[in-house]
Amino acid sequence: MKRGSKWLIAISGAAIIVLLLHLFAFTSYYIPSAGMENTLIQGERIIVNKWSYGLRLPFMSLFPYTRLKERGVEKGDVTVFNNPANTLQPVIDRREIFIGRCGGIPGDALLVDSLFTIILHRQVNPDEKALYSYPKHKEKTLYDLFDSLSIANNKLMGQDGDKYVRSFSRYEYYLLQQAIIKNDSLWIFPFTARNSGNARTLTIPKKRQSVKIEPWNAMLFRNTIVLHEKKQAEVIDNTLYIDGAPIHEYTFSQDYYWMVSDNSINLADSRLFGLVPQSHIIGKAIFIWFSKEWGTSIFEGYRWNRFFKKIP
Q1: Which domain holds residue 44?
Q2: Cβ neighbours of 251 (radius 10 Å)
Q3: TM spans, by residue (predicted)?
Q4: d(CA 222, CA 271)
Q5: Which of 13, 62, 81, 181 sits 20 to 30 Å CA-CA off 200?
Q6: What CATH number is attached to the domain comprising 133?
Q7: What rounded mean pLDDT belongs to the chain?
Q8: Is residue 193 scored above 70 in pLDDT?
Q9: Residue 56: pLDDT above 80?
Q10: pLDDT for res 83
């Protein structure tokens, strides 16, 4: 056999192995936005394990949804899934790929405000961001602390009355706390939105369990029923109607998840695209394999300390 033919067979074999691994084991995903900072930084590339929740078989345009050795997503997992709100693409595995942290699993009861933000959401790792407020007259003091603690690229998020609002990771907030209390009483605290007093309990649908439909959650569940339960539904005068009949409870046919962003100022999570069905889950984000600063040349900007970092 000629040497050229041997090389062609070797390259073809390697390509087939890579394709099989991509389809049935692992895949790479590009982080397109700042929604998961500081856990994942825009522009990074990660490895996703497709077996973490059972392998969802590919080619869903040809075969019905099937998952081998199915397991549920665990609360706190950084999960990769298909866009559940895409109404233009009927084939699930051809829809855009999203990433988020699982904030609610089937059967969970989440305390949310009127914007469906989880009020008692617990930060699960030091890099996860949350909102904090502080008096406006402390702005210059805060900038001095930024310089001394090497906290960079922190932008003002907004204001609430006589207070400013910024986003910090738990680690950054810890550093600020320790620096402030050396010479002063603490003046920066977790931000509580004005509308958080309208707290309600959101039940995340679980397969074959009934969920109560109320005026405040009727539209969320209507969208879920239309998109994923494939039934005709509408909301009239805050009442959910299915096939023309008023409904006050509904039993869902599959498990659903509530996905959140680590960067709390980012709304591109379940508050925007709604509940995520089990059928849309691709896998669990395992580690970062490539990290480089946006807009830098080919020879610079590499974040070597983040290469092959495990995702918490």
Answers
A1: 25-103+267-310
A2: 12
A3: 7-31
A4: 14
A5: 81
A6: 3.30.70
A7: 85
A8: no
A9: yes
A10: 96
